[in-house]
Amino acid sequence: MPRVLSIRSAARPFVARALRGPRGRRLLGLSVLLAALSAVLGTWLALGTGEFERELRVALELEESRHVQEQDRFALIADSEEEAAALRAEVARRFAGHPMAYDDAGYRVSNALETAESRLRRAAYGEVPRAHRALQRDARLALEAWSKVHVDAGSVYGVPDYNWYDPGEVVALQTVVERAMSPAIEVYASPLAPLDALRMTGVLAGGALLLLLLLAAPVLAGTQMAQETHENTLQPLAGSALRAQELALGLTAGPLAVIGVLAAPQLALLLAAAAAVGHFGAALALVAVVLAGGAFLVMLGQLAGLALGKVRSPGLVGGGLAAILGVLGGVGVALAAELSHRTAGTLALLPQAAASHSLAQAFGLGDPAQGFGAALDTTVPVVVGAVGMLTLALLGLRALARRVGNTSLVSLRRGEALVGALVAMVLVSTANPPHEWRAEEFYLLNLGLLSIPLAILLMMRAPTGDVPPAMRRTPVGSLVGEFVGWAGLYLLLAAVLVGDETMWLFRHPLALLHAAWFLVVAALLALRVAVAPMTFASRLWAGVCAAMLAVAFGQTVVWARPAEELFFRNPHVFVFTGLSPLLGLVQAVLTVAVPWTLLRALRRPASVAPVTLE
Amino acid sequence: MRIDLRNLGKTYDGDRWAIRGLDLTVPSGSICGLIGPNGAGKSTTLRMLATVMQPTEGEIRFDGRAPEIDDAELRRSIGFLGDGNPLYKHMSPAEYLRFFGECFRVPDKELDAAVEDMLVTFDLVDKRDAPAGALSKGMRQRLLIARCLLHKPKLLILDEPADGLDPRGRSDLRAILQRTRERGTTVLISSHILRELDDLCDQLAILQQGKLVVAGDVADIIERYEVRRFVYELRLLPPTSEGGAGSERAREVLVQHRALIEASGFEDGCETITAQIPGGEDRMADALAALVAAGVRVVTCSRVRSRLEDVYHRLSEDRVN
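^ inputs. structure came back:
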């Protein structure tokens, strides 16, 4: 069967199942409702006059704050006709020579007049550029008219000079002079035009797309997979006429169909809005990023659901995924909002950050100089990130096919895992690029970061097929060798990028020993978690092992320093010796006990779980 | 579909074998029962036959063809009901069958008719749109079996299919399996309830501790093991006069002939006595003559054929001995 036809026929039963009967109609209704909501909310946020939407526009830097607007335009902005009438009456009272009223209108008018008078007073005295001499004279006259006191030219001690070189200040002064100290009274209206409503609709549709593909899709896919595993409904599917690859595709297509129905109108809105009032290229980049990032996260969610579904309820798996992805989303948006040259690379690592950044670029949100990094060229991290995520998603699909079809004991083959490791290296190196003066911040920090994806890849290399856990044989030596090989490859690449003369890790045997212990134990711990069953005690012990890993990494960083610095600092071989000799002894014992216990559990899994045969 | 298993074995750790050295031929169009205690390797064998598990050694041939890895084409002609097969609780029987019909690539033109046929065959028409979670255990089991037959497989593999079925459901299942066989489908079935298989199967394989103990035609096996066991059922009329020879007298005579009384009862106006008489048919002839001489009114004396259960118990005893 041709590939495209095979994919279609594999996806069909699962898509039909996901959208069957009234579910499909309800979903379609919800989709239309969500699209309408985006349009209505967008219009409301762009043109609404309420405080909430005004604050939001100010936060998104689509509008100046009311205070700044009043200062710039020498105006008082009222929320209603009644408030405007009160302000007008107060202004009239003040010009009639009455004292200020002690109410809100009184205070506001008084503040505006005092600010304007201060502006005139500062402008009336001191040196002035030739172009603004007439304006200074008019300001002096306006001040005399207001204060009924003669104002001399020249400088007066204690009055700061006026900032004649700020065009905004000059315009504000001119307005005060022209209005002869009488502030304009305006009823508030959104400064945005009706076309901006389309822009806001595009922003909201993009946000919805981001939420649907980077949060809802992985959570739904992971939960469904956990449910299939938990209720053992995968077995009859594995015995059907679908190949393992088709089955994995179908299981992915089902939840994606639900998300697709909800996302399609939002995508149309986003592209239409970007074409009309935004940057279409950036919008396309957003779509590419959410698709690639979403594909990667969906695969990750499904693999997590498959691994955890047997021992945890689907609800718990879904909740956990939602919490993790929610936090990652928050971090991503925050990173995108505060993007700088130093942090621009993180867009490669966090699809949520790249998507938020592309969305802001598509509709020109934020301060071009800082917020969302609109002025930064982020093409490289965004493209690298999207390609990397897509590659990892494809590897994830292969692993998923092997697991659900039970066609192999390992989820990834050696070559595939190596590709995954290389992609992880590229992504991490893009996120934290080499720095000329701080080589250790590059290669050591990246090594620490890389240990997590490499450990996940190693777990997928471990034999975990449909075999009772206690009966598995794990080729520990070769798998640990693979893991250390990936790390070695990364260090080699790092040496090429920063030059090995700055990599002090290779210059001190203790630094190398700590690094080697860190890598070997990280590999053993990953294999232990993947292969042998976990009890409460073994989970506790795994926590101890993880803590020891953190300590070992810290010690690697401490010892990977120039010789003169080490001489000056004189660090301990076991860091806890500095606190107490007893603690140092405990650390030394754990240094031997941790790898030994992990090895024992891997070599004799029956010692941690009884053998059960069906 | 003819199945040939040659030296089939499965081990999970290279040391302990779930099943090993299994040689078995199942002729096309037969019903083959697989019996054995828990842990005998029945489910493992059936999974390998359903191609959802790879054997460690040996080979399986389906109509002379060895399966490939992830052989979807072959699976299309197999219907497999594994152990502990749950349903999607929110799907109705019609939706469930349609879903699996599509997974088995049943052509669109035939799918609706096939689903309808299965709903009628398995008496699920009234529940066609009810969520599967609301069905009784028996109905769920019927639905699972319907799923296995939907795509008209050439080989039907059922692991404990009678679980959860009431007596009527079991009787219906037997009828359906007979009909399935008549269509030329080979059926492999495992069950703990040996009476279920007794007059259903024409082939039998008994597994114990991962090894094949005996296999072949059911009648042949029973015949082979029957020679060791001579059980007769006697039907006696009540005595004509008070104090005449009745069932009590008959028991006395039988015990004198070293008979072991297994059961007694009353049926169609006659007393019945089931007795095992060791030593061959000569001994029974002597006992019968003695009964007649004692005035016992014997109407019939028939030899009781051994059942699968008897054969299985006999084999288990041999194994223990």
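Chain B has two domains: 3-223, 230-305. Residues 10 and 16 of chain B are 9 Å apart (CA to CA).
thumbs up if we can close this ticket
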